[in-house]
UniProtKB/TrEMBL annotation:
Native source organism of the sequence: Rhizobium bangladeshense
Protein name: UPF0102 protein HJA87_08535
Domain of life according to the entry: Bacteria
Record InterPro entries: Restrct_endonuc-II-like, tRNA_endonuc-like_dom_sf, UPF0102_YraN-like
Family membership noted in the UniProt record: Belongs to the UPF0102 family.
């Protein structure tokens, strides 16, 4: 009985995470960002959202938490390294990579509130 309950918890967490990524993507589009990829997977890791605004490539980590501080704290140094490595692979595949600047953001998605965008978070 315990395994089934754990599976349900994991399934709900995955669903909440995916929904939070979509909410964050719509939020960023409303702010004028163009979404290039959602849940972009590389052999070095996954980037939740790849967005672009002008000559700026933005790599966004989305965290669904009850508080903003918990969302920011959830992006560990190891996660930051993984996201940077995956973003390097993404950039290497872009034809206009030489003129692109890059930035790493966090979007905190909290229940009952608008998402909070933290540009240049790491």
């Amino acid at each position: 009985m315990g395994d089934k309950n754990l599976t349900d918890i994991k399934r709900k967490a995955l669903r909440r995470g995916r929904m939070s990524e979509y909410v964050a993507a719509v939020f960023l589009m409303l702010k004028g960002y163009r979404i290039l990829a959602l849940r972009h997977r590389t052999r070095l890791g996954e980037i939740d959202i790849v967005a672009r605004k002008g000559d700026l490539a933005i790599f966004v980590e989305v965290k669904a938490r009850h508080r903003e501080t918990a969302a920011i704290d959830a992006v560990s140094v190891a996660s930051q390294k993984r996201i940077r490595a995956a973003s390097d692979l993404w950039l290497a595949r872009q034809a206009d990579q030489a003129r692109l600047s890059q930035r790493y953001d966090i979007v905190a998605v909290m229940p009952g509130r608008l998402p909070r965008h933290f540009p240049d978070a790491f």
